[in-house]
Design brief:
- The protein is α+β, with helices and mostly antiparallel strands.
- The chain has a single domain, classed as Glutaredoxin.
- The chain has a 4-stranded mixed β-sheet with strand order 2-1-3-4, sandwiched between helices.
- It is globular and about 45 Å long.
Length: 196
């Protein structure tokens, strides 16, 4: 049985985007099945009583993500609409996951926000992004208001808290957790061990 990788993310997280750009490569090299789990980072922070990053941290982040995007060879910049409300886009990812298209939706919306700089807080942008990725954008945006989809996002966030997630991206190989895109080397090693 192939190993699995649980990938907890919020579309508003630049480091989640950076890690997501490497998932296809990691999956191909390890045979791992990636399970994307969109959560509301704001909900996690509220439950844990943690604060938003300080202005000094945000200023540092700008240069840091530029270094990481150059290392990975992926386009990235801080969008004009940063931060933005990601709740509807996250729900659209949950709706897509219910149809077996969660990874495609996640990658499309990450690209739209972090590579193209478009505001995924806008339903029209979400729809266009998903449609361009070959998904039924109109249906997924409409489904984002459904109770089962809303509950799915709540359930993912509750699961994240139960498993000890305090930030994103947080990845799990079995019960071993890895926080941040700079831990992908350890994720790959753990997947190799699981796959033996």
């Amino acid at each position: 049985m192939p190993p699995s990788l649980d990938f907890f993310y919020d579309l508003g997280s630049p480091y989640s985007y950076l890690a997501a750009t490497q998932l296809s490569r990691i999956s191909a090299s390890s045979g791992a099945l990636v399970r994307p789990l969109p959560i509301t980072l704001g909900g996690v922070r509220k439950q844990l009583g943690t604060q938003m990053p300080s202005m000094a941290q945000l200023q540092y982040m700008s240069g840091d993500i530029a270094r990481w995007s150059a290392r990975y060879g992926v386009p990235m910049s801080i969008p004009a609409a940063f931060p933005t409300k990601t709740i509807q886009a996250l729900r659209a990812c949950v709706a897509a996951e219910l149809e077996g298209q969660g990874l495609s939706a996640m990658h499309a919306l990450f690209k739209t926000y972090w590579a193209d700089g478009h505001d995924i807080g806008d339903a029209r942008v979400i729809e266009a992004s998903l449609t361009q990725a070959g998904l039924d954008g109109a249906r997924l945006v409409a489904r984002s208001a459904a109770d089962d989809v809303k509950e799915g996002l709540h359930r993912n966030t509750a699961l994240a808290l139960d498993r000890g997630v305090f930030g994103v991206p947080m990845m799990f190989v079995g019960e071993r957790s890895f926080w941040g895109n700079d831990r992908l080397e350890f994720v790959e090693a753990a997947l190799r061990e699981e796959g033996r």
